Amino acid sequence: MPAPVAGIMxxxxxxxxxxxxxxxxxxxxxxxxxxxxxxxxxxxxxxTLHAKAFVKFMSEGMELALDKIGTDMAEDIKExxxxxxxxxxxxxxxxxxxxxxxxxxxxxxxxxxxxTLFRSIxxxxxxxxxxxxxxxxxxxxxxxxxxxxxxxxxTKGGSLKARPYIQPVLNEWAQSGxxxxxxxxxxxxxxxxxxxxxx
Length: 199
Prior knowledge:
Blueprint: H1 8-12, H2 16-20, E1 29-30, E2 36-37, H3 41-80, H4 116-120, E3 121-127, E4 136-142, H5 148-153, H6 167-176, H7 178-190
Antiparallel strand pairs: 1-2, 3-4
Helix pairs in contact: 3-7
């Protein structure tokens, strides 16, 4: 399971319709003189269904937006660890099979060796209990490599020094405001896809 992206939801979870100033339109009708009047029960039901459809539309947009951000974050993390470890050579100048030189110098990210850690970097967009956009979580990290966390955090006692490769990327995204920039760009395009019934 990828490591959670720290703080991403504080920046993005409540983006949705409120930040864009959007809301569901209430069903209204006029009397014989053309004046607006409160609708009967049917109008209330219609308004409720309309609001639910709008919330569903915005939730789908949030999920797709976070999926795109997760893809970009994962690519940035991979880019930080794609520097290949130097391969030692024998006396004749030939590479020594399955042997590697010194690893990266902490706190630099780990070097690329066989690509196991590199290929393990993934992202997930999941709904926590509740199933609303407020409970939508983006997770980015390594999902199945046992040494991924020791490389990121180091080991107790210091036998393996930390070579963070995930947190620096998350920090850069947070400090640059890139999360909100990508959300706004995505939603500008997404709102062009609003179904006619919700306009």
